[in-house]
């Protein structure tokens, strides 16, 4: 070894001893000041799926079991360049409401009542999303739409106040008066036409 190599080796060894780390090529590779280890020193880079335990008291916790619903991907329309032709980004999410054991009977009944237009003849609730050019973001959007629909079934309609009931009654009476007034005007117009025809003969 030449002199420069020996000096570099000594510097590296002294740095390693100070940090009490093992000698490896990875330990001496370049690391940016903005690397993940510096930004988040207490975190781990190992990905894991958290275990979810639903709350038994809540009617709907927001958890949707992906193995209980059917998810299909297809080509999305509209602009997007070559990515639209290569990647199936449009998401079609469906499940049969009657056999959805992960929803309570109350939610299933209200879901069928409120979302009749999204149901097919077989009883499947269909949700589509092609909001973005990303498959994952469209799936997240479709799941959020489903959560919003389910939460809408749990919202109790507010009890109308006496003032609003009176206002509604007055509006109905006013609409009935206007309808009868228009009907009377049309009747008078027809009678006047008929009378003029009789006079000419």
Q: Can you characterise this structure?
A:
The mean pLDDT is 82. The chain is 47% helix and 9% strand. A 3-stranded antiparallel beta sheet has the order 1-2-3, with helices on one face. The protein has 6 helices and 3 strands, in the order ααβαβαβαα. It has 201 residues and is mainly alpha-helical.
Strand order, largest beta sheet: 1-2-3
- Elements, N to C (H/E): HHEHEHEHH
Mean pLDDT: 82
**Biggest beta-sheet profile:** 3 strands, antiparallel
- Oligomerization state of this entry? single chain
Residue windows where pLDDT falls under 50 for at least 5 positions: none
Helix and strand composition category: mainly alpha
Q: How would you describe the shape?
A: elongated
Distance between the termini: 130 Å
Q: How many strands appear in the DSSP assignment?
A: 3
Give a summary of the structure in a few sentences.
By secondary structure, the protein is mainly alpha-helical. The chain has helices at residues 3-19, 36-39, 82-86, 105-114, 135-154, 162-200, and strands at residues 70-74, 90-96, 124-129.
Describe this protein with a few key phrases.
elongated; three-stranded antiparallel beta sheet; mainly alpha; 6 helices; 201 residues; 3 strands
What is the secondary structure topology, with strand pairs?
Blueprint: H1 3-19, H2 36-39, E1 70-74, H3 82-86, E2 90-96, H4 105-114, E3 124-129, H5 135-154, H6 162-200
Antiparallel strand pairs: 1-2, 2-3
């Amino acid at each position: 070894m030449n002199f420069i190599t020996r000096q570099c080796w000594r510097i590296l060894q002294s740095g390693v001893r100070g940090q009490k780390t093992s000698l490896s090529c990875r330990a001496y590779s370049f690391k940016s000041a903005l690397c993940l280890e510096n930004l988040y020193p207490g975190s781990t880079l190992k990905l894991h799926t958290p275990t979810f335990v639903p709350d038994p008291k809540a009617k709907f916790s927001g958890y949707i079991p992906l193995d209980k619903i059917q998810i299909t991907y297809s080509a999305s329309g509209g602009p997007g360049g070559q990515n639209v032709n290569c990647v199936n980004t449009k998401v079609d999410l469906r499940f049969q409401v009657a056999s959805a054991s992960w929803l309570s009977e109350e939610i299933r009944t209200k879901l069928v009542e409120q979302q009749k237009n999204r149901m097919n003849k077989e009883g499947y609730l269909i949700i589509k999303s092609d909001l973005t050019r990303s498959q994952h973001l469209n799936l997240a959007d479709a799941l959020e739409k489903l959560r919003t629909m389910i939460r809408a079934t749990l919202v109790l309609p507010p009890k109308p106040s006496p003032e609003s009931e009176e206002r509604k009654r007055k509006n109905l009476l006013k609409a009935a008066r206007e309808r009868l007034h228009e009907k009377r005007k049309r009747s008078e117009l027809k009678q006047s036409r008929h009378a003029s025809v009789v006079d000419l003969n």
